[in-house]
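User: Some background: our group keeps a shared notebook of sequences we're curious about, and every so often someone picks one and asks for a predicted structure to add to the entry. Today it's my turn. The entry only has the sequence so far, pasted here. Could you supply the structure so I can complete it?
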Amino acid sequence: MRWFVFLMAGFAFLWGLEVGEVASKVVLDKKDGGRVDGKAFDTTTLKGKVVFLIYSDPSKKDLNKELFEKVKEQRFDRSRYSSVAVVNMAATWMPNFVLNAVLKKKQKEYPDTIYVKDKKKVFVKKWGLADKNQNIVVLDKDMRVLFVESGKLDEQKIEQVIDIIREHL
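Assistant: Of course. Here's the predicted structure to add to the notebook entry:
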């Protein structure tokens, strides 16, 4: 059984999102997670807008704070741009009821951002995103990957993300 898990983890890495490819559909509902308001989350609903998606371990939430502040300062047109924060709830020791309370507060504080709970690491499995880290993904209006990185972004990458979003709006 261990070899199977190791093999699958290796394939997830090989199948990770790559710039230029169309991101596969991901649906989170009920036991897998979903939106903070309890509704299902389906990535196909994001089609038609440039998407700035953060997939993060809760303990890494401030890893790219500088990027988030700079993106927020841009005040991108919300009719053409969407931001999504997906929390990898399975990557932390924190209880779900604590995370739920924090996410509800965040959703009220930032109503233009869609907050999503991933309870079963679905994005890790389907998109090959890094587990127990923070991932930054930018998608175009057709769900094509324009940018994907995990970990802390340096100043050059931060400017690259902003330029990519601006260019595709």
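Suggested note for the entry: Residues 2-168 form a domain with the Glutaredoxin fold (CATH 3.40.30.10). Confidence is low (pLDDT under 50) at residues 2-13.
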